[in-house]
Amino acid sequence: MEGAFQVCGNCKRRVASAHFALHEAHCLVFLAQCPECQEPVPQAKMDEHRESGHQQTRECQERPVVCEFCRAAVRLSKLDIHEHHCGRRTELCPDCDQPIVLRALAQHREACGSGQAQRQTG
Fold first, then answer.
1. In this predicted model, what pLDDT tens digit does every residue of 16-30 receive, in sequence order?
2. Are residues 94 and 52 in the same domain?
3. Which residue numbers delimit the TRAFD1/XAF1 zinc finger domain (predicted)?
């Protein structure tokens, strides 16, 4: 069963072999290793990570924090990468049953809920 997974050279995560090519292509475009701590960081957040992430101690980086999308406890040092991937998952909107990316679900529900209220009163 070990052969069913491969380790991504960029983010160091174990990825199912069937999904490895897609993961690696996505990972190389959106993630980069921090030259200081060797942690995978979304490229768009690298400057922020390097300015603020290295000011805290290693102990603090290992404390559990909650993912805003799935509410799972994740180490602070892994939160950026976890939320980057987790926020791209889709769930059905409870108001309109359309699949919505989790990162946009709150905004969608505001628009979707106000649209339903207008349809009901109109």
1. 888 888 888 888 888
2. no
3. 77-113
